């Protein structure tokens, strides 16, 4: 399997695990328990085939500075490379998902802020925003997910949102542009008219409106987004992974990269055919023995 990159790629082999074993997962921390490492701006926890990645700057509502952006990129690239991981969950510590880029750092350290303008050659200001991951990412959204924080949530395949969460392009007030994929992903998710309503006004959008728009995939009570996202990740992780990733790849290609309907259909066929022998035949055999009858997923 190719690792995460700033371009499209194919998808790899499945690894079937469960959420029974729990251990830390941090390349930067050298495998230490990330919860015990003082001063970590990003902490991770591995649960079988699922890894949670948390922004850990609650004192600034998890606003992202350069160090945090670098760490987020490292952890999501490490997740994408690891053959034993199937799904990642991105969330924020302390009650907020992410309040965007740290404007205090932007105001005080403009000279040291280096932005790669060629999107194929380097990361965005928020870190992983230019990645095209080969595996599912779920955002567990609590509190504020605004400005660059909204763009990080848009990076995810699915968003589990708490009832009191607030999303929006709050950076509109300060002349900070959306350069982490917000103007690209948001219109594709919710349509151009609704996206422009949020982009032009900067207004807040609550969980129920986000659900109606398709910006939120699930709405859960406050304090339950992470648990619900992990449960969803476990469910997704239990499916045959090569097939799941091939279908995911085709859907993303059709939405973002396909120049025509015909080429989108061809891409779907080219990525689906190898799965027939690797997973579909054995899956059909399980069905004949009674597994999954009546639409059961257990």
UniProtKB/TrEMBL annotation:
Recorded superkingdom: Eukaryota
PROSITE patterns named in the record: ENOYL_COA_HYDRATASE
Gene Ontology MF terms in the entry: catalytic activity
Signal peptide range in chain numbering: none
Pfam families linked: ECH_1
Family: Belongs to the enoyl-CoA hydratase/isomerase family.
The protein, known as: Enoyl CoA hydratase domain containing 3
